[in-house]
Amino acid sequence: VTGSRTVAGTAPIGVFDSGLGGLTVARAVADALPHEDIVYLGDTARVPYGTRSASTVVRYARSCAAALRARDVKMLVVACNTVSAVALDMLRVELDMPVLGVIEPGARAGVAACHGVGRLGVIATAGTVASGAYERAVAGVDSRVEVVARAAPLLVPLVEEGWVTGDVPRLAARRYLAELAEARVGALVLGCTHYPLLAGILEEELASLAARAIPVVDSAHATAAELAATLEERGLATTGRGEGRLQLLVTDLPGRFADVASRFLGRDVAGLGVEQIDL
Ligand code: DGL
């Protein structure tokens, strides 16, 4: 985390993602830091990012970050693995505030969960896997741990469709995880914002394929913990107030917005203010 700017501790935390999947991170942040205000931006008009080129994702990330900066956020959380994979360094250089991505916390939590086993499994979007970002992040934590990363693109539309139980996600999960089980990974990192909704199925299928329990790490919780520590360190934490407010900004309002958003957030979004903005 780099950068500095004078903002009040009561200013909101900015969180953005390519769409609504990053609400899994916003949810973990709200649980860990209940007094903090959060402004969440989902670039629903341009989702998915995971299938796009790095230069396009960098361009999109820049516009999302600028929109949140204009709302005077005290810190930026990049709640998208694909953006964290290809645009985090650029955002840290260009922005005058602390910027936290999801890959470094996920890599740290994954290495810790490996318990000395030399291989860490990662499933993510094609863009994240192609970037090699998890390999770099894990090498920075423990160079003895080898990353086995696989793209699992079908899981994103399944989660958006609400198919998080039953045969269809189970078979898709099994197909994607077979190679990781064969590689005898010591833990699995869910390297995409959508996957926490399938955590139970992924854990069960991986255990069944490997014939033993393998810990599954969700980077949302690791990111929220790291965010809490960063705010504390920098004297930016809010304490002693009522419950923080969550504000939602989107670039498009798809038909099933409330339904999909509520699923990711784990609570009804009906009472929250949703604003559509142009980037
Ligand atoms: N938010 C993206 C990620 O975590 C997944 C959805 C997308 O492809 O945009 O990588």
Describe this structure in words.
Strand 3, helix 3 and strand 4 (99-100) form a beta-alpha-beta unit. The protein is globular. The protein is an alpha/beta fold. The mean pLDDT is 93. The chain has helices at 23-32, 54-69, 81-94, 103-114, 126-131, 133-141, 155-161, 167-182, 199-210, 219-233, 257-265; strands spanning 13-17, 38-42, 75-78, 99-100, 119-124, 146-151, 187-191, 216-218, 246-250, 274-276. The protein starts with 12 loop residues before the first strand and ends with a strand. It has a six-stranded parallel beta sheet, sandwiched between helices. Strands 6-5-7-8 form a four-stranded parallel beta sheet, with helices on both faces. It has eleven helices and ten strands. 45% of the residues lie in helices and 16% in strands. The structure holds D-glutamic acid. Residues 17-19, 21-22, 47-50, 80-82, 125, 128, 156, 192-194 line the site of D-glutamic acid.
Main attributes?
single chain, 279 residues, alpha/beta, 11 helices, 45% helix, globular, binds D-glutamic acid
**Count of helical regions:** 11
Biggest sheet record = 6 strands, parallel
Strand proportion, as a percent range, falls in 15-25%
How many E strands?
Answer: 10
Calculate the mean pLDDT score and round it.
93
For the biggest β-sheet, the strand order reads: 4-3-1-2-9-10
Shape verdict: globular
Low-confidence stretches: none
Radius of gyration: 18 Å
Regarding quaternary structure, what we see is single chain
Task: Decide which structural class fits the backbone.
Answer: alpha/beta
Fraction in helix:
40-55%
H and E order: EHEHEHEHEHHEHHEHEHEHE
Hetero compounds: D-glutamic acid
Task: Tell me the distance between the termini.
Answer: 25 Å
